[in-house]
Amino acid sequence: MKYRATIAGRSFEIEIEHDRLVRVDGRPLYVDLEQVGGLPVYSLTLEDAGYVLFVEEGQGQYLVEVQGQVYPVEVELRRPQLGFWRIQCPDDSGECLVIGAPLAGRLLSLHVAIGERVEAGQVVAVVESMKMQMEIKAPRAGVVEAVYGPPERDVSQGEELIVLRAE
Q: Is 37 left (phi over 0), alpha (psi -120 to 50) or beta?
């Protein structure tokens, strides 16, 4: 699950990969968070350091107290994008297109490599879901900027698979 958290005016992209692995703006962190006795009190272990959090839910935000400091926190669930969407290219030289998994399933294969030129309609990946294989095709011609592999792994709906630089 992906979230956008704004803490004291500063925004962070947070992705929960599994019980203990969380990525904050792409940086992996190992965390353990447990509520204490049904109270608005949480025990947080973050990279081997321990904290006690007091959490008060308000209108559209939370107030979180950590080590005597209170932080206003807003959390927004980031819905997965389907198909493809535009982004600024990694080197800021123009617009790129992200090709994402149209549904959750197993990434069977990636048919492109970084630097390869692809044509509109060319198959770039195959995802299997509920025993059906879906070919993912490039929506336009371009050069592959990034490939998020490896194949033979589970993917979430909207997960980034390929970044394509328009030509």
A: left
- Copy the structure tokens of residue 159: 């997960």
Whether 89 and 71 share a structural domain: no
Residue 39 structural domain: 2-78
In the chain, the amino acid numbered 37 is G
Strands (E), 36-122: 41-46, 49-57, 62-66, 69-78, 84-88, 95-100, 105-110, 117-118
pLDDT bracket for residue 82 (50, 70, 90): low
With beta carbons less than 8 A apart as the criterion, state whether 85 and 99 touch.
no
**One domain, residues 54 and 68:** yes
- Supply the CATH number for residue 47's domain: 3.30.700.30
What are the tokens at 18? 């599994």
Q: How confident is the model at residue 41 (pLDDT cuts 50, 70, 90)?
A: very high
Return the structure tokens found at 154: 């589970």
Comparing CA positions, the residue from 28, 45, 24 lying closest to residue 36 is 45
